[in-house]
Design goal:
heterodimer; A: about 600 residues; mainly alpha; 28 helices; about 0% strand; B: about 400 residues; alpha+beta; 10-stranded antiparallel beta sheet; 8 helices; globular
Chain lengths: ~600, ~400
């Protein structure tokens, strides 16, 4: 059995020592999956579960005398803590309603009408999605605060300022952050909804309003999803809570939880009780969504659906539509960006000096001062490491989830990741502080608290659930037979994956890397609670600068960080376009 | 064509021995103890309905699925059992997938070249051999095209070239023609038969299409519910189906009910609606036993008006379809209904006709057991797949 062209026997035949090793190793086929599961439990499950358990049993973790108590909950429902819970519920409901209404309108304009600039508006939605909520809030604050940009420019909007520094402002910012979620949920459903349902109403005597009512009815699952997602995102938000809401003395639950963890002595049982309440809100939203849709079927997608035609807007409707889109863009991106950029260009903003001129000196200061520059470099390094490890783990998770016949393992992982996506970031962060501060870890010789490693692990745990879900769509679309063909035709497990599956997934993997990088670079809750002493991350450094009334330096750092993120995003895609083989680039590209 | 033809350097195929192969998905048993021997160089078709386990068996042979029990050996070498598993790339085989599984980021040439990596040939040689393989399937001019720039048939031929280019010891085909139209299917079937046999590899070909199986196979193994119910050359499977299931699955014009009037070696006379029908029946049956007679499509014809026969079954035409060379009728008879009853003349719906049946195309099974002629299947100790099929 010799290849007559080369005189060498074909690899793998007849039986070699390597084959015997393979046969022996094949007995441990479950080992890689078991290792993966240990990792998931350690970084996702354990910290949150232990933290939540302390709400009921402080003694179990040396946090109090009781083995079982509900005192954390009773305290969570009194005074400022109760106020925080009620406020969170209120802004959550209001933001969900407002964002869903606006998101629906935008989705309809973009998908179903000939409104000019539809791609631009879709791009605006993605930009809003990626903008951290604290940056949006800070942009507004820089404009409106006393001695802020508008004050310096001679516009004294005291009435609007007092309105914005309160629930109204918090709801506006959270709604603006919620709009892209609602848009994505509803536009996906709207895109798949054929024209025949509206046509059926019209041919049976219904007018445009009756057709619109049917349309809204058919989109009920997407609308409920939008409401649930925006509500969950709003009550879980920490960025607005730590900035605008805190500055406005408007307590919300995520910030009261943070305060409980930062208090001296630390009140973990109370923080955990607030964590339970926040999770309860999320579960409540999902339960309401489920209950609303339970008895009805909304299967409207079929291969026979005819794509809907775009509605031709009248000139007046077109102008109104464009004006509405510009307004959303201004509120969500324009004002915050203008606020940040203008504040970074004003000399001595926030200080007591009376003459303020335009200058680029703030940027020079950030780049030359170690205390302002180092956090940028540090966060960039952390973001690169986090993005790389997260993408690898997320690809493995997506593979486990999409694999044929992975059964219980996939279902448990699916539920864990879904729960982790819904879990407020601040609960995660508090869980990390709590768990890795436990005496057990120091007894085991594991000193992770206050280290960069724990911060990176925390970042990974925060990013992994959403990234896995993002990759799941692409990984599920890859036919199993591609990798199987790679193996059958001679490639080893890694080589076959690298040569047959990686090229197909390259684009989504780069996209996921870029998303994780940008999100980690500007991440707040995990950074706020876990940054190593003396090494603040960029978000923490911005907060510190603003707390010290260095508004110009803080906003300059903010602008540089956002620009830096955009440059890295551009670089990542540029490198992909330049270096990836032609076949890789063809996949997923629009001709 | 440049370079040596593929067949010129082909190596001997694997001898495959499957013993008690078991595979479960959760609580569902997909393979329930399959025993099968495939001599080197034979073309075996696994024939069975959806869910019978044929694809799972091929995937276990390929090594992309693991056995839960039993064993698979290539020659004397164990490649899989309940605890051990040699990965696919160490088995020296190739596979043509149902969905082709061409890698979309590679050109046709890139796809074919990939399979040569295990041979570790110098680049130039590998390139030449891949081009030869593409030429063999008539696609040399499309070497630089990506899969999505090729038609379904062309994609399938690239998959075929990729499978044979490295001269594997075992070639697996998983319903490779199921996504193609009828005309293309026939042309590709011929190409597969020629190229696969030229490669001298052992071939295992999966299909649920009995005509495809009969056309391609040296031997056919019929699977049902995860077990091999009959194995043998196509002629044996067609003429002597071991069970009613095999008979039905390999082509039936209909079934008639009757009772045994008499028996002589290999044949029984059955009373169907008062007419004595002579049909095949392997096992001894007692007079008066209730029987089910399965009728092959080719065994029927309408009796001409001037012909007379005591054994022809009377019936009424309920449907007629034009088939080019003549007409196929559906005839309702007293003992059952017969489809595909051929006649060169169109018989109008509702007309009375007599259907003449060829005894060798009718097989009888007792109503209580559907395994009456199980005795014609392989006796223990004999490996039927080694029997050379007689060309039809």
């Amino acid at each position: 059995m010799v290849d007559t062209l080369t005189g060498t026997p074909p690899v793998g035949w007849p039986e070699s020592r390597k084959d015997r090793v393979w046969l022996a190793l094949s007995r441990f086929r479950g080992a890689p999956l078991a290792a993966f599961w240990v990792l998931i439990v350690v970084i996702l499950g354990l910290p949150v579960l232990l933290f939540l358990a302390v709400a009921f049993s402080p003694r179990l973790f040396a946090q109090g005398p009781e083995w079982f108590t509900l005192s954390g909950f009773s305290q969570a429902f009194t005074g400022t803590l109760l106020q925080g819970v009620v406020d969170s519920l209120f802004v959550g409901v209001m933001s969900a309603l407002a964002a869903t209404a606006v998101g629906f309108a935008i989705a309809w304009l973009v998908i179903r009408t000939d409104l000019p600039g539809r791609r631009v508006w879709t791009g605006v939605m993605f930009a809003l999605l990626l903008a951290p909520s604290y940056l949006v809030a800070l942009g507004w604050e820089r404009l409106l605060e006393p001695s802020g940009v508008l004050d310096v420019a001679g516009f004294h909007l005291d009435g609007f300022r007092s309105l914005f520094y309160g629930p109204f402002g918090v709801i506006v910012v959270l709604s603006a952050k919620g709009v892209p979620f609602a848009f994505l949920a509803i536009s996906g459903a709207l895109r798949g909804l054929g024209e025949e349902f509206e046509s059926a109403v019209r041919v049976h005597g219904g007018g445009p309003i009756a057709a619109a009512r049917i349309l809204v009815g058919l989109l009920a699952p997407a609308i409920w999803s939008a409401l649930a997602i925006v509500f969950a995102e709003s009550v879980s938000d920490f960025g607005v809570a730590a900035t605008l809401a805190n500055d406005a003395h408007f307590p919300v639950a995520t910030y009261t939880l943070y305060n409980a963890v930062q208090a001296f002595p630390i009140q973990f049982p109370i923080a955990a009780a607030v964590g339970w309440i926040l999770m309860g809100f999320v579960v409540l939203a999902l339960f309401a969504q489920n209950r609303a849709l339970r008895t009805r079927s909304y299967r409207v997608l079929s291969g026979r659906s005819r794509p809907a035609r775009r509605l031709r807007l009248s000139p007046a409707a077109r102008v109104t539509g464009l004006a509405a889109m510009v307004l959303v863009t201004v509120v969500g991106i324009g004002v915050p960006a203008f606020g940040a950029v203008s504040a970074s260009l004003i000399n001595g903003l926030g200080s007591l000096i009376t003459s303020h001129g335009l200058t680029l000196a703030n940027y020079g200061r950030v780049l030359s001062s170690a205390s302002l520059r180092d956090p940028l470099v540090y966060s960039s390094q952390l973001a690169v490491v986090t993005a790389t490890i997260t993408v690898v783990l997320a690809a493995v998770s997506a593979r486990v989830l999409s694999r044929r016949g992975s059964g219980v393992s996939a279902r448990v992982l699916d539920m864990s990741l879904l729960a982790a996506v819904a879990l407020p970031g601040i609960v995660f962060a508090a869980g990390y502080i709590f768990t890795f501060n436990l005496p057990l870890f120091s007894q085991l010789g594991i000193q992770l608290y206050g280290t960069t490693i724990l911060l990176v692990v925390g970042y990974i745990a925060t990013a992994l659930p959403a990234t896995s879900r993002v990759l799941l769509g692409s990984v599920s679309q890859v036919q199993e037979s591609l990798a199987e063909a790679g193996r059958v035709h001679g490639g080893g497990p890694l080589a076959a994956w690298r040569r047959t599956v990686l090229p197909v997934l390259a684009r989504p993997l780069v996209a996921a890397w870029v998303l994780v990088f940008a999100a980690t670079l500007l991440e707040l809750p995990m950074s706020q609670l876990l940054y190593p002493p003396g090494s603040p991350t960029v978000s923490v450094a911005i907060e510190h600068a603003l707390m010290n009334y260095d508004f110009s330096g803080g906003t300059a750092m903010e602008v540089i960080a956002v620009l830096g993120a955009l440059v890295v995003v551009g670089l990542a895609w540029g490198v992909f376009r330049l270096l990836a083989p032609p076949g890789w680039r063809r996949l997923g590209s629009v001709p | 064509m440049t370079g040596a033809p593929i067949s010129a350097e082909a190596q001997a195929g694997h001898t495959v021995e499957i013993r008690g192969a078991v595979k479960r998905y959760g609580k569902t048993s997909v393979l329930a103890g399959v025993d099968l021997d495939i001599p080197a160089g034979r073309f075996l078709v696994l024939l069975g309905p959806s869910g019978s386990g044929k694809t799972t068996l091929a995937r276990c042979l390929a090594g992309v699925e693991r056995l839960d029990g039993g064993s698979i050996r290539f020659g004397s070498r164990l490649v899989s059992d309940g605890r051990h598993h040699l990965p696919p790339e160490r088995r020296n085989l190739a596979m043509v997938f149902q969905d082709y599984a061409l890698w979309p980021h590679l050109t046709a040439l890139g796809n074919v070249s990939y399979a040569l990596r295990r041979r570790r040939l110098p680049g130039e040689v590998a390139q030449r051999r891949a081009k030869d393989a593409l030429e063999e399937v008539g696609l040399a001019v499309f070497a630089n095209r990506y899969p999505h720039e090729l038609s379904g048939g062309q994609q399938q031929r690239v998959a075929l070239a990729r499978a044979v280019v490295a001269r594997p010891g075992l070639l697996l085909f998983d319903e490779p023609l199921s996504n193609l139209d009828a005309d293309l299917r026939e042309r590709l079937r011929v190409q597969i038969a020629t190229i696969a046999r030229d490669s001298e590899a052992t071939v295992v070909y999966i299909t649920h299409d009995q005509s495809e199986a009969f056309a391609l196979a040296d031997d056919i193994a019929v699977l049902d519910n995860g077990a091999v119910v009959q194995i043998g050359p196509p002629e044996q499977i067609y003429r002597q189906p071991a069970t009613l299931f095999v008979a039905r699955f390999t082509g039936s014009a209909g079934e008639l009910l009757g009772r045994v009037l008499g028996f002589e070696t290999g044949y029984a006379t059955i009373d169907v609606a008062g007419r004595p029908l002579r049909v095949r029946c392997a096992s001894q049956v007692v007079v008066g036993t209730a029987m089910r007679v399965l009728v092959r499509p080719a065994a029927t014809r309408v009796l001409a008006e001037r012909e007379v026969s005591d054994t022809a079954i009377p019936g009424t035409v309920v449907d007629v379809a034009y088939r080019g060379r003549g007409y196929e009728h559906v005839v309702a008879c007293a003992g059952g209904s017969l489809a595909a009853v051929f006649d060169s003349t169109r018989r109008p719906r509702g007309s009375e006709v007599s259907v003449l049946l060829d005894p060798d195309g009718c097989v009888a099974y007792s109503e209580s057991f559907d395994t009456d002629i199980v005795s014609i299947t392989t006796p223990k100790g004999v490996e039927p797949a080694r029997a050379r099929a007689v060309p039809a």
